[in-house]
Each structure stands twice: as C-alpha cells, then as structure tokens.
User: Fold these one by one.
Assistant:
Number 1:
Amino acid sequence: MTPVDLFETLTSTQTEALNRLRAGDCGPRWIRAERQTAGQGRMGRQWEGPSGNLMASWYGVLPVEMRRVTQLSFVAALAVTEAIRPLLRVPDPLKIKWPNDVLYEGHKLCGILAQSETLETGLGVVIGIGINIAEAPQGLSYGPAALNALAAQPQTVESVLEALDAALTRRLDDWLTHGFEATAAQWWDQAYGRDRLCLIEQHPQARTGTILGLDDYGALRVRDPDGTIHVIASGSVSYPEA
C-alpha cells in the first residue's frame, strides 16, 4: 500500500500534494482528508467534500512528457472502476464520462483531476480522486450517486482507498510500460454516452455529434451530423436527452 497522510480537514488535497512536490517531496504518496472545504475540480470549479466520502490525491514524479498528462484522467478512471465494480450489486451501469467523471446510471459517483508540475527530478504529477461513498453531495452535474447505496455491503473509505491504490499502481505501471493505446481502448469499452447524441460546448460555439473514442493524447473524437470528425481537447460534454 502506498503511504497515506490523513488530515481531519483540508481546503484541498490537491493543493497540499502540489505544495509537497514543489518542496521536493517526490512521493509516491496519498494525501487524504476526512473533510475538504474547497476541493479543486475541472475548469477551476470548487466543491466541498463531506466526511464519509473519499477525498484523496496521489502524487509522485513520473518519467513522462508533459503532453501525456492528459492521459492520466483515463488511467485513474479505469483504476476507479476496477476498484469499485466488484463491490456493486449491479455493475453494468458503471461508466466513464469524458474526460474525468465516473457515473452510475448517469449519476456522478466520482470525479478526477490530474495536474502536473515540471521539476528538476522529472514531471511531478498529482491525481485527485473524489468518490462518493457514504453521501451523495447535492448540486453536482448529472445528479449525485453514493457507493454505499449501490454496493452489496457497506464500504469504508479505508477499504475503498486500499483497492483503489492497488488498481492505480497497476494501471500506472501498465501505462508507463505499454503506452496509452490499451488504456484508450479499455476506456472506450466503458465510455458513457457512446449510444446517444452529445452536445459539446466550446467557446465561442457549440456542436452536436456522436463520440468515436479518444485520440493519442485523450482528446475526444466526435462525428457531427454532417459526417465531419472533430477532435475536442477541451470543453464541456453533455447529453441533453439523458
């Protein structure tokens, strides 16, 4: 098990992990908070994490190029589904939504944020993972879900983190050794929304289309109604009819 530093309350496990990397701590290590008051999300969003849910950030220094950091959201999402799928009474509705959410029947169960910092020793990486275990916080996009309402038996934060750590260690090793191709294919097998029309909102325009999979760095490939294929590196993807 990768070492874990537990805090009663933090503003953000992500911030604490980044600060440690900048101070020369190369990890690997987990920062976990029992309560989080200003967790970091994608596009600068903040959220509050209640006690009983998993709020943790893995950090370490990896021998990879900066442009590959975007792939880590998919590595981590696969680790999350690998860890929690065996716990579910009905596992089939567990899906991964591009680029960083794990959903159950369309409801958000987990969010992921990968960040990086260039260091003298290599590329410092932080992977923040929040899993709703005891409680489904309100106000989240796609509505909330909580693991213990879906699991065959109640789970603790500690048991989920132990399973997640083992899965993430395996997934990172496979990604570092073999590249992104297998990860992208396995993500596609669990991709949310591949059977319906999606709306992609990118400033200054929005477009609809059907997702086709990932490119070499994790951008979403989308075919619009005219048959043109677009590569979406950033933006918000939703499914209005869902």
Number 2:
Amino acid sequence: MISKLYPRDQIKSYLIIDVVSIVFLFYIVLSSDSAPSLSGSLILLTAFLASFYIGLWFRDRYLLAAVLAGIATLTLIGMYIGPRILLFGFIFADMLGKSKSKWHIAIGIAAIALMFTIVPLKENDGLASLWSSILLPIMIIQMIFPIIVYIIRKTKNLQGRLDIANQQLEKYVQQEERQRIARDLHDTLGQTLTMIKLKSELAAKWVDKDPRQAKEELKDILATSRIALRQVRELVSEMKFISLASELEHSGKLLHTAGIELEIAEQGKPPLLSSVEETMIALSVREAMTNIVKHSQAKRCSVTLATVGHIYCVNITDDGVGLVEGKLGNGIQSMKERMQALHGTVMVSNSPHGGTTISLKLPLHHHRKGNPAS
C-alpha cells in the first residue's frame, strides 16, 4: 500500500527523512506567531505538499515545475517566518538532483539562489544578514547538492549497466568455455576412441584365428585407453601444447590401424609458429584424420606441408568417396573455428581425382624471421 503513496526505490533511503522534515515544517509554520492566518498557512503547506508529492514521482519537466513551485512556496513562508525556513530547501535540492536534464538542474539551482536572495530582504539588514550568517554556506551547499546527487545517481546507473554487461559477458564466456570443452573433447577424444574402436574390431577378428595377435591388439587398446584418460585430464585442466610433428606421427598410426596408407611431404623449411598456432593446426589435422577414418572409405591419404609466400599451407587429400552434398559435420566447423581464431582459413572440397581435399592456410606476415612467437 505504501509503495503507491511513496516510490518503492526511495523508501529505504528517504522515507523517514521526508516524514521528519515535513512534520517539523508543519510544526514551525503552525506554531509561529508571524505566520499568516491558519487558512493561509494551510494553503501554503498544501502547496508545499503538492509540489513535494509531484516531485517524488517525476524526473522530467514536471519535476522541474514541482521544484520551482516548492521553492516559491518556501520563499513565501520564509518571508513570513524568517530565513530559518530555508533549511527545508534541501528537500527540493535533493529532488532536483534526480532530474534527467542538466538544464533543469541549472534552472533549479538558480531558483535556490533567488530564494536565498529574496527572503533575507525582509530582514532589517537585508542581504547583509545573508553574507554575515550561516545562511551563506547553507545556500552554497543547497546549490551544490543537486549536482552531487546527479553525479551519484549517474554513477549508480553506470555501475548498474556495467554489472549487467559483466553478467552478460560472464554468461558469454561460460557458453564459449562449454563450446571449447565440447569441441576439444570431440577433436581430441574422438580420434583416440576411434582407434580403440578399430583395435577392438581387429581383436574380435583375431580372437579365434590368432589369439596371440588378438592379445597384442588388446595391449594396444589398453595403451590407447590410458592415452584417452590422460587427454581427459589435460582437457579438464587446460589445453596443452600439441606438436604438429607428433600429431602427424599419431595420425599415421591411426590410419595404419584403419588400413589407410599415409604419405607426408614437407616442402621447404617449416616456419616458426607460436605454441598456440601449432596446437590449433595440429588439432585441425587430428580432426581431419578422424573424419577420414570414419567417413572417407579411403585407401590412401597424403599430407603436404608448404610455405607459399606469407601463407603456411597444410593440404590433406584422400582417395575416398568424397563429400556428401549438404553434409558438413561438427568436425569441419571445429576446424574453421580454430583457424578463424588465427585469422586463417579452411577450404574443404572434392578432389579432382576422387576423394576429399582439406586445405588449412595460416598467414605468417606477423612473424619475424628467426624470432619465434611465443
């Protein structure tokens, strides 16, 4: 109920102060011998309350009008009772600071100054009473008060926006982190689990024909599953550096297990890559090899590493069934995201002689010769 009579957002900070101030104002006016008649006093106090109430709910030109009306009312009361009534100008000075317009605040401050100029004229020594009494610092404080309130509210609004932005950023980072973990799990564990699957199929074929060979395959499965466990630990902590050479070696074993012959050709001296760049390319190669084993039905695969101008190129070609039209899996998207993070590109196309060609291109213009990035 009270929130309909008084703004909810101000109840905690202002309600008690406003109630106490209004009670004191009513007491001073109604108990003063120099106040106008009872009806006149009630009219002035009603005008004060109306101005105060309107100022509570608005932040636009209605707030300015309410402040000006309230200051005018206090000026009239002050001319009857004396300058002490000007202390209640803090009520409207505070309201004025909540205005959205700097021009409105400037007009209100001018009205406060005018009020402190008019009321002392009623005294015997005129404006001298203003300059020689405590009224001067009170006037200065009331004139500065709206500016202080405006700055505080502006700061709170900016802090609120910053908090919202930080919350949105945190959600975005969490989402990106989930996607990264999902991508890394897919890229890293996918290949290892594919090898375990292939080894298991081989072991099942050999178990009756050649138990000794089946036993060897089971040993490989055990070793590969240990690798998978280590990869999970690494992914849970943080992505480690992955050497492109070691990844190609690992890919050779995977393809050999799947009955695919791998040929690697390196043209020229390899460039000096940062650990992040080499890791991203290695993971992209890993994903490409996993896709070849799973989907290509290929017998041969070739990897060409070359530096063309300021571009480092990794071309992966197989002689399999080629691309299925309209079907690009998560693996291709994962490679694209990794290379885009390095300002590189990924091109996937059908090979002229059958199969698929994946071309990874990384710009090297930011590298200095003989000075590897870290």
Number 3:
Amino acid sequence: MTSALVSPSTLPSGSIRAVCLDIDDTLVDYETSARSGLAALLGHDDAWPAWRRTTDLHHLRYHAGEVDFDTMRRERTKEFFADLGEELDDGEAAEREEHRLSCIAQTWQLFDDAWPCLKWLKASGLRLAVITNAASRYQRRKLKAVGLIDAFDHVVISEELGIGKPDPMIFHTACEALGVAPSETIHVGDRLDLDASGAVAAGLHGVWLDRRGEADGVPVGVSVISSLSELPDLVFPRLPHPR
C-alpha cells in the first residue's frame, strides 16, 4: 500500500478507449439530496451518520441478493427509527420511505464538474458507460431527471445484471458492451473499495474520485483525483480541455 497520489503519467499514453463512471456522489450529488430526504422525515439531518451506517448494512443484504430493493428500504427505515425509539409497522415504514424518496427526487442535481467532463470525454471520441449498484427503475429515473439518460453509450445496473461492484463481471460486462478491452478502460467512482480497487482487480484502470480529500493508504495501481475536472488530464495529458 502507498499513500501517494498516482500521477497521470502512470496510465499508458494513448491506450484508453473508454471511460466508465459511477452515478451517486460521482456525477450526482447524492449525499446532499439524501440528507434533504432525511431532514424531511426528522426536521433535521443530525442523524445522518447513523442513517448512513444503517443504510450500508442493509445495502450489503440487498447486493448479496438476500432481499429485494423495496424490502431493503422498508427494513432499513424500520431499523433506523427503532434505534431512535420508534417502532414502525411495514405500512408506516413504506409510507415514510416514499415520502423521503419523493423529497430526494426533487433535489437531485449534478456536480458542477460533471457535464463539462462528460462533454470533453465524448468529444474526444471515447466510449462512455455508467456502472452503478442500485435498483434499475430508481437509477434510470435519476439519470433522466438530471439530463443524463442519453449521455452514455451503455448503462450497466447491478439489479439488471444480478451482480454488483466490485465483482469483476459487472466491469467486464460494461467493457464488452462498449467493445473495448478492460486494459483500454478507465472506471471512475467515489468509492475506493467498490469502484477504484474493484476496477483494478477486474483489469481496468481504477480512479478514485476523492472529493473530500480523504486519500490515505491508496492501493498500488489506483489513481486519485479530487474533481472530475482532473479526469481529462489523466486520460490524455497533452490535450487541451475545459477547466
């Protein structure tokens, strides 16, 4: 393990033909919208760390195929409120979850660096794909809401494929759909474990989008950027691009 950032020169010059990207907290500012949804339930978002911990545990069950997406959301909400001392039945949990999601959907927005980066990548002749771990209808609705539904050559969603990141198969499925080899492909995401390290293990070039500046102990082979505005320099260091 190393703690240094990996420079753009570590990528094979001229060998990249495709870029895959995560959605939540990579292209879409999911945390801000999710916190607004939690505030709609509680009147504040002070319990955000507890919500994240509970969500992460229940997402593991969902991605392992133990529960479907709606069941996961309902059981997550019940457990969260039980920890706050309020017992909910299934109906009340589902009703609160629908209210939360409705509030979230009204606040979905792209990060400011998303569109300029995607336009540059597309104009450079690169193939583009999304690789996301989530429910299909939810993510496709989100892509449409933020104007990205037609921005990619292919969209790979864990629910549709039956496997999720960091399983190599989901990365290989995206590469096959794009008509490129893993070694010709970069994958970018906000999760070091699921996105960057998962991509490297699958033979792609993994890039961790570390917006919070948390990089420490970064595995060998993983590149780190703090903004999508830095991605063009990582792909083609010598070509001009918008800042």
Number 4:
Amino acid sequence: MSEVSIFSVDSLLKYMGNDDKARAMVGKIVADACAPGMEPLLLAGTAIREGRFAEAGKILHTLRGAIGTLGAKRLVSASLALEQALLGQNPDQVPMLFANVEAEYRLVLHAAEHWLRQNASGLLG
C-alpha cells in the first residue's frame, strides 16, 4: 500500500486553506491525536487479555476516530476488523488482528512524527 494510506493530512490542509495558519492548526491536530502514543493500545490489549472485549472495542473505536482524521486509512481498516472480531466474540482472530492494528498504529505515529518535524517543528516537545 502507498504511504498516503498510512498517514496523510494533505486533504485536511487543503480544506483549512493550505497556508501557514492551516499548517499550524493541522500540526496541533496531529500532535494532539498522537500525544497518547501507544497508551490506547496498551489499554485495549489489557482489556482483551482480561476478556473485556466491549471495553477494548470502545478504546479502539475512539482511537480510530482520532487517528482517522489524519488520513490513516490502513489503521482505520485494521481497527475496524479488530472491533468487529471483538463484537462477534471471535477470540481466535483477535491476536492476529490486534498485531496488525499495533503495526499500523506504529507506522502512523512514525509518519506523524516525521510530518511534524518537517512541517510544524515548534509543536514537538
């Protein structure tokens, strides 16, 4: 799959005016969306291990919504597949699907950090 499907804020930038003000606003959106780092997946993983599938699904749904605004189409698809497996109480597929979500999320975080360094360096701590 292409880099665009991992992370792309081009449409968001264009929608907001594609100027320095838009870049700063999008930079804040990216930084805020990625601020929790791996914490949501750690929480979802714990919930899954403890059999709290509904809670894990809610965590993943929230993550998908926050990161989906960043053009993370691959992560959105992977998370949706995992959420559906959790809703169906299909534990045999969950470990593989969770590993896929984790891998895609790491790619998004890496791409977002790279984008911030290139475009909004003042927002990185």
